[in-house]
Structure to design on (298 residues):
């Protein structure tokens, strides 16, 4: 048995948000490929923009899923989304230029399986569970892929697991004339990579918290779609700033600094917009009457 609490209506429908979110997330991630085309990594920040688009869409999906209850499912839904998304994202990056598309498809499949298990095996009996967890898994996967591409400059598997190369030299047999020769072996370094160095874990939690927070913060009788979505953008840019700082370990100084500047500008603007919307919604409740205290013969 589930209890439905009506989620706030807005100008943008769930399907419209989904289309916008997926398109911008995929385009933003693919634009980071300009790094490989041009030989410079200044286009890495587009991955962060794509990740924010996915979070923006996902915050509305969280709202509609968690309207079947008291909102206590918001954190768990976010963690499930990024847990499933992490599997899809790591597996999907093995497919070269098709990686973002394959990641999306894998995430949808994994999310649908998790949603089916939750509804039909655990018997949560929430009408929108399967489709919502399918969408949230896509959100988690595209967010992690976008932030990973921003941090390293690529969405290819090798770029996420290999941090650099070292040369190993060993004496070999003497050449003609008695000259000493060496055998040189190129060894990949994994510990200093995004995945090998566990930096992907930070991206996981940055994205998961950014997905959970908007509806959790705006939940209540005066929740409005535009304010919740604006908060999603604001926390998205805040997460993007942290990823931009992390990118100094993987990108050149100029490219990483571009990401920092873009994320700061986006955060300042979205924060001001969110405060303005909060004042708007708070003002609408100023005429509310105080609660009458009952006592004595009353």
């Amino acid at each position: 048995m589930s209890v439905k609490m009506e989620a706030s209506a807005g100008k943008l429908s769930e399907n419209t948000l989904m289309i916008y979110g997926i398109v911008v997330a995929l385009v933003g991630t693919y634009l980071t490929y300009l790094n490989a085309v041009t030989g410079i990594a200044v286009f890495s920040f587009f991955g962060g923009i794509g990740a924010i688009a996915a979070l923006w869409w996902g915050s509305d999906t969280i709202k509609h899923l968690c309207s079947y209850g008291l909102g206590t499912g918001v954190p768990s839904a976010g963690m499930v989304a990024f847990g499933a998304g992490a599997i899809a994202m790591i597996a999907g990056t093995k497919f070269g230029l098709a990686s973002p598309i394959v990641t999306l498809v894998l995430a949808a499949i994994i999310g649908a399986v998790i949603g089916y298990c939750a509804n039909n095996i655990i018997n949560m009996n929430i009408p929108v569970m399967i489709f919502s967890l399918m969408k949230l898994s896509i959100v988690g996967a595209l967010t992690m892929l976008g932030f990973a591409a921003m941090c390293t400059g690529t969405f290819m598997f090798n770029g996420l697991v290999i941090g650099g190369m070292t040369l190993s030299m060993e004496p070999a047999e003497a050449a003609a004339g008695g000259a000493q020769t060496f055998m040189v072996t190129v060894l990949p370094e994994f510990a200093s990579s995004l995945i090998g160095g566990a930096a992907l874990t930070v991206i996981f939690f940055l994205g998961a918290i950014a997905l959970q927070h908007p509806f959790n913060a705006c939940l209540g009788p005066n929740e409005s779609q535009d304010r919740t979505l604006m908060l999603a953008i604001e926390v998205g840019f805040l997460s993007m700033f942290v990823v931009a700082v992390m990118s100094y370990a993987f990108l050149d100084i100029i490219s990483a600094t571009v990401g920092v500047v873009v994320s700061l500008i986006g955060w300042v603007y979205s924060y001001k917009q969110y405060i303005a919307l909060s004042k708007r919604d708070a003002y609408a409740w100023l005429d509310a009457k105080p609660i009458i205290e009952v006592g004595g013969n009353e």
The longest helix spans residues 253-283. The chain has a mean pLDDT of 85.
